[in-house]
Amino acid sequence: MTQSQISNRRSSIFNRLFDLSTFLPLLHSIAALGIALVVGLLIAAASGGNPLSVLLALAKGAFGSPGAIASTLVKSTPLMLTGLAVAIPFRAGLFNIGGEGQLYIGAMAAVWVGTASSLPWLLHIPATLVSGVAAGAAWGAVPGWLKARRSVHEVINTIMLNYVAIQVTDYLVTGPLRGGDYAARTDYIAATAHLPVLWDVPPTSVSLGLPLALLACAVCFGFLYWTVPGVEIRAVGEGPRASELAGISVSRSLVLSMALSGGLAGLAGAIEVTGLHHTFYAQFSPGYGFDGIAVALLARNHPLGVIPTALLFGALRTADRWLQLGAGVPKDLIVIIQAVAVIAVGAQGAFARLTTRRPQTG
Amino acid sequence: MPPTLAVDMRAIIKRFGAAPEPLVVANDSVDLIVPQGELHAVVGENGAGKSTLMHILAGLQQADAGSIELFGEQLDLSTPASAIRAGVGLVAQHFALIPTFTAWENVILGAEPGSPFRLDADTAMAEVGRLADELGVHLPHDVPVERLPVALQQAAEIIKALYRKARLIILDEPTAALSPPEARRLFDIVNRLQAGGCTIILVTHRVQDVLDHAASATVLRNGRVAARFHQNDLTANGLVEAIIGNGSQSGLSDARTIRTSKSVLLQIRGLDVTAETGPALSNIELSLHSGEVLGIAGVAGNGQDTLVRAIVGDTGGGISVTAGSIDLNGRQLPSGIAARRRLGISLIPEDRLNEGIIASFAIRDNLVLGDHQRFSSPMGIRYGLLDADAENVIEQFDIRASGGLQPAGHLSGGNQQKVVVARELTREPQVVIAVQPTRGLDIRAAAFVRDRLLDVARSGGAVLLISHDLEKLMAASHRIAVLARGRIAGLLDRHAFDESVLGQLMTGEHP
Questions:
Q1: What residues of chain A lie within 8 A of the CB of B381, using their CB?
Q2: pLDDT tens digit string along B142-193?
Q3: Which of A226, B98, B295, B371 has the fewest CB atoms within 10 Å around its CB?
Q4: Would you call B371 and A246 a contact, using CB atoms and an 8 Å cutoff?
Q5: In this prediction, does ipTM exceed 0.95?
Q6: What is the pTM of this model?
Q7: B residues 358-397 near A, CB within 8 Å?
Q8: DSSP A277-294
Q9: Which CATH class is domain B263-507?
Q10: A329 class by beta-carbon count within 10 Å (0-12 exposed, 13-18 middle, 19+ buried)
């Protein structure tokens, strides 16, 4: 390779890194958040609140004390995983609405393994997590398989399977697997299945689940761009027919992406059980599976983008109580901000079409 | 007194881009003069500036400098509406029709008869029917245009222009999507338009259409006028030379220079295929020899698509083989696209954008689509190797791109096709199925693609070439099989090639 070729190559990498278009999606998401925040503050002001005190309450609620920070991290952990569970199938062209159900199934499997046996912790922890992942993956693979083989729409199936998962786990915790007291929950899992606590801030604690979720984001990023099945998933999402004719198995990619997605949501459920609750309460999730959709959309379905958006949504979820106390504004304002952010991201598709120059033809 | 001019464009200049981007001069002081009532051809390669000039004439783009007179009047064509008022009708290559509307609804859209509160459908239908009759076409009243054949959609576009009182009709690559009989009917329509007093501008890169139909021609090359021709000095050689420039004509090799061998590579016996979506195939018998280019002629929709899918193994979605066999080197092909590709079957599909490339993927990834496994290691895909490979292929296949990382969707159509051809041929295939591989390409890119396909035959492989363009087929094939209504209607050897015989076989009128 000659010197000029090398410098050519360098400059192309340089250009790519500093090409604005590489960062355009990021700018779009930040703009969407800005719009959402402005709209949220306007609504707060219209309903008699003081925008400045709303902002202060949000900041204080999410980051104002060690407990607040820990709570933000704890709430972000499942959101990272359910965000990934939406982002990965999206890259294959599938819209997974089933994160909530997959999370419940994963949590139920984890609690079952966590209570049913007594193993040394070195085996017990991985066993509970793996069973959560496996159960979620199986649950997620079903709509993937139905889509690939029978062309049944995945949105309908994943929504329906959410109800099934929630009702089945409800039945289990109120019936066969009901624990000792009056609450609708299972027995507590064995101490050998508890995830190690990294930072204890009563009443909450940050467990090993957080680094696991961060690791999952990194692994998914590597998977999508540096492995053959990952590249094939993206190829199927971007050009299904061209992929098929090039010999890529479209069905395999669809099923794989949904199984992966289910596994990630299942891991979220397993981490909730082993790292936080140590039991399975009926309907313990405040909608992490559904919030995952917003997390993924705002992250533009990028596995690394999921990290900041999940932290943001975790922070908003943590701060919502403070809104009422600190600024006298209903905590539903958080939901409005989330919703406007998602709408703004969606609207950017139309916006991009307006601003893109028309291709020139000869 | 000189005859009135329909179009008198002088010194038109149009530049694209602004500093610091490189400036593209699409039209560099171009003159276009079209006498009233004539059929004038505007000819040139992709990117020569034809479409830009026509867009200026139709008010879709504004010239940076120059003057435009239409029918003797100096005009300011700053919007499409002002061009329409001046009597300009543009029939673009990609039709501007609403798929779910009927033909007459599309025609009147934007100029509906009746009051703002009531559409006078009877008047509209009668008027559209009258215009259709004048052109000798029948447009059904109640069928959405998406279900009409391409030729009728095109007729609807022409009637749309007439309905708006167009006196100058621009046809942009009108024969690109038509079969030979359809193209003949189109020129019947054009003759009637001329008889009715219309002036026609035919934008094309088909030399034969110009020779057969144009009274005069302007050739554009690199944004400038390369030559002007009048009927008596229009020759094929003169045109081609003007289009691609002096001395750059590549040695156009054809199938004659390649000797076929007797050994059979691909053998199709008694193949019956049922199809839900397209016409079925019955009792197909074909053999492809080593070193051979076998052409498949036929009007679009006579089973070509089903045949291609059956051979490459794309048998989902309503296509199923019910009888017969396809053997490669004497062994039955396994099922599945991937398995057949591994054995050396390559496909250059018809729909380049949907079936050939993934527009958002980098060129380098398109070049190895379905084949990333080759670069896989336990540490992930080795993009260093893949990039080096891609650089070579990009150079070897003369793909004009800023680099392997450029998204394939940013390339021109010809270069996108080169990406597909490069991918399919660098696999060292035994059999290449090529469906209209040079459609929409300029002369140079088309010659390049054709040469690469002939290379496959030269090195002992075989090519199944499917096209609706008899001229191209006859130039490139050793034998031509005609597909009509899902059957092989005839098989001609090279010495027996004859356009009229092939045409009769295609339409089912046996000679």
A1: 225-228, 231
A2: 888 888 888 889 999 999 999 999 999 999 888 877 777 888 889 999 999 9
A3: B98
A4: yes
A5: no
A6: 0.75
A7: 358-361, 365, 369-373, 376, 380-381
A8: ISS-BTT--SSHHHHHHH
A9: alpha beta
A10: buried
